[in-house]
Amino acid sequence: MNLELPTALQGKKYKDAVNWFMPSPVPDGIGDLIVKNCEPPFESRIVFSGLDSSVAGEIEENFANAGYIVVSNSRNHRFDPDVPLLIPEVNSDHLKLLPIQKYGGAIVTNPNCSTIGMVMALKPLFDNFGLETVNVVTMQALSGAGYPGVSGLDSTDNVIPFISGEEEKLETEPLKILGKFNGSGIDLTDIKISASTNRVPVLDGHTESIQVKLKSKATKQDILRVWNEFSAEPQALALPFAPGRPIHYFTEDRYPQPRLHRNIDKGMATSVGRLRECNIFDYKFTVLSHNTVRGAAGGAILCAELMFKKGLV
Amino acid sequence: MNLELPTALQGKKYKDAVNWFMPSPVPDGIGDLIVKNCEPPFESRIVFSGLDSSVAGEIEENFANAGYIVVSNSRNHRFDPDVPLLIPEVNSDHLKLLPIQKYGGAIVTNPNCSTIGMVMALKPLFDNFGLETVNVVTMQALSGAGYPGVSGLDSTDNVIPFISGEEEKLETEPLKILGKFNGSGIDLTDIKISASTNRVPVLDGHTESIQVKLKSKATKQDILRVWNEFSAEPQALALPFAPGRPIHYFTEDRYPQPRLHRNIDKGMATSVGRLRECNIFDYKFTVLSHNTVRGAAGGAILCAELMFKKGLV
Amino acid sequence: MNLELPTALQGKKYKDAVNWFMPSPVPDGIGDLIVKNCEPPFESRIVFSGLDSSVAGEIEENFANAGYIVVSNSRNHRFDPDVPLLIPEVNSDHLKLLPIQKYGGAIVTNPNCSTIGMVMALKPLFDNFGLETVNVVTMQALSGAGYPGVSGLDSTDNVIPFISGEEEKLETEPLKILGKFNGSGIDLTDIKISASTNRVPVLDGHTESIQVKLKSKATKQDILRVWNEFSAEPQALALPFAPGRPIHYFTEDRYPQPRLHRNIDKGMATSVGRLRECNIFDYKFTVLSHNTVRGAAGGAILCAELMFKKGLV
Amino acid sequence: MNLELPTALQGKKYKDAVNWFMPSPVPDGIGDLIVKNCEPPFESRIVFSGLDSSVAGEIEENFANAGYIVVSNSRNHRFDPDVPLLIPEVNSDHLKLLPIQKYGGAIVTNPNCSTIGMVMALKPLFDNFGLETVNVVTMQALSGAGYPGVSGLDSTDNVIPFISGEEEKLETEPLKILGKFNGSGIDLTDIKISASTNRVPVLDGHTESIQVKLKSKATKQDILRVWNEFSAEPQALALPFAPGRPIHYFTEDRYPQPRLHRNIDKGMATSVGRLRECNIFDYKFTVLSHNTVRGAAGGAILCAELMFKKGLV
Fold first, then answer.
1. Is the pLDDT of residue B197 over 60?
2. Reported ipTM
């Protein structure tokens, strides 16, 4: 595979190469950095990868082999047996896989953006009551498809009931994330998960209607309590990018809503609401999570902060 | 209760009283009709009611007592033991309740707009394979909330994960619609249904992610066959407002979509797509139905056409 | 230039080659047509061109040279001295250019989608009162940018105050359309036009705030009268695609609106409203026109119908 | 007029009385404040009024008579001869009207939300080159209509070409704001202004296409220079709510855009772009300003900060 930078970009300043469309201008000190080929050496020990999956696999391995810690949003290495699929609040012990990795450095992966919010809300239920089945129907934001992604002619006044590959990720990634480190790998957990994924006219923030069947009985109060009390290593270590509280529960029926609540706690918290009994499962509720902050860049930074604080970098 | 017309409207022409915002102007011959009190006598034998449920109950009874056939979109009489909750393609035999009614005329009700599309898609499965459980998560259009309904400040770039009273309707109405006429009333069927309802930025057309557990085995081909072959009394009688085919199945993964398909077959057909196996239930699929045409005015007209053709008016 | 069809498309049925996303399925008899290279011979005498301007010029000339009548939506030949820039209600006499053309066949062009609605509303003012200056600020629909066109991430909750090349078209095309055939070409008219173009989150229908300074005095009633009385050759010839009335004036302050009124009269009419005096110009008003129907495909068909009925095909 | 608080609200905590729908919860210390009748005494010297104009006039006078400084967003007193219509960067010298007011306290008014951004961009042109005529066509955000304001059924996929009373405000308010204090009142300036106002599907941020005819010649560079150099009393006094720079000029053709740039500089700056020559006027350009921050609450706070710092409170 040819991984060379297109000639047109080589040697350019970042601000001249980038297709920038953030609300604030390119930050000083960033815009003047020179774009270089995506190959070692880099002047850093951590490398963040948001590459397309068509090239991510090989490039990430090159950096890991060269001794770098690669934190990746791509799906290529998520199911490698020695690679953590990491949500810092959920399975930080999976970092024990790192010494097992064959690389001089390491690869750590961020789960899919629709997986993270769901698993964050499931984690306290899983730990306290066990999970037998999980059903999820998503209403996902446009930004999940990248830029330009979904045409305005498809997104306006519309729902698209299909996102390629997304249901498979939601049905499998939680099994590894909630799985158990067995000394040499991760034993997948055995929850039955069914996912139906839809694209809706929302800019950022994936909303998910979730239903769960628990292994042991729990009252509504029990569930609210474990959500409200939930706190994990990123909070204990006071990592700069960690949300103050990983889960924010709303008592108003009409909440959470993506436009109002996606940015709660720096966009890093999971919003939950509408907990109620279910005629088929035990309980149902709504989860909201920012897909490009918690679900991508912010999640990757938190992974890096966790590794740094634990002395793994 | 005071059911008098506000003084400001009495004696006005319809075109001067109405808050008209349809794409085409008020039709000739309609605009000059005089607005009158909502009480008998009316110069018709059928009366359509789209009244608010705060007044619909009493007004509809007054007309039924005065000998009129009332076709209602309101929820007030939907669960009266002697009132059909009618989808002409699904339970036209429930019209046998009419002779039992205590009125000189009769009341027939239209189900809730989110119920109709779902039950239309379920009917062939129910008849051929039996239904044990049905799970539905909706993404409902703004027009379902009436006008002005949802503020543009709430609907833009947003999802509202709650619609008051809607989940209860979706969980109970199908039990009566798919129930059996026992000579003097309707025996509810015993399907377990769970509904989660959401409002999305779509003008018209409710999209629903549905999952079903069948009583007997069926292959994907079996299901596609019974959907494609489904035809009922409105089609046999060639009722003017009946869709040519009640169910349109799409083979493209990304279909049906509300903006593209809500108007299929005069807005009276149910669009279905994405039939696939489910890890928890047997199958899952997507349903789309026009909520103000099939789900309200058009559905009511079809009920009236059915009764007329069957000599019940 | 290589104008060959990509190998992947050669010999395919249209329904298998097309990226179809219209509400109704590919019509019978159309879907089975075989896609062929874009070069003569074709089994028709009229050829419609919606080609990208990077290839339209040469292909259209090839067909015209081979004796075909080419009706084009592309900009390439719009300002050729012997090519009509045609709005059938406005300048059908410009078809007198056809005998002058160097081709065995002919090329006729459709103006830009934002020009057509404006010029339709200006024509009766131009004929009756003269026009000195015209100022226009547009709020244009997403479909004007083609598919996929504008990303949903750019169109949602946003206005884009720039459309490449659009202001130039609005400032120049009316000068030719309203120009005078002088026996061998078109004398441009001398109106001063200024255009500012914006993209707004609307699917179809360009809305335009227009201001005019007239050459001779006119009252508001004069203007309303010439708009309401306006009728032209397509109406006189009862062309199938012609709107019954080219201009629909709305007396309600809040009209016209793109979603409500873009489809008036088969999408072929121009909607106008809010005529009022102006502190700077003489009058200001709002114009709405369907950009892909009247502004493209429908407009091209009407051009062809006009030529056919006039015996030019 | 009865200005009593509805019984249902009297004595309630603010958090229980308010219809809160901001992204963050009611701030601590605010939610527990007790709602009281809108009449003196209040425990403050400055009173902010965002009252409906049906009641604002009398209530604001009551407070001013009781010695309070009233900063109002309502239109009632904007054209009182002794009341400043204040944009702190533009006409802070109009505060000299305060000693002339008949009240023990004072009333100061905030201009209309669509006026503020425009006048901010005009001010350096007015001071340096003079203004003869100003033409403005607006594309205004939904939040300008309040809550619930515009129905989602009207705002989706649509433009509404009318906002009641808005064009009059845009055509008259700048004449007072840019007017001259003559020792006892304000001499209106004599610019000819024409405004056309439209509502578009944008949550916050009014976009305006503006054209100007200057009294003296200026090059494009001259204009860019006076915009970039523009700074005023709020900047000199380093008022906490003042934008660092009142005017941000964008060189990219496609900017400013409301979703990207409305929050620049705390939402208090005016974004400007697309300066270019005009066929009718001298120049045209696009202005964007946050209508509920700079155009309402934030603007009022800045007025108060200015008066406080100048020792007028």
1. yes
2. 0.95
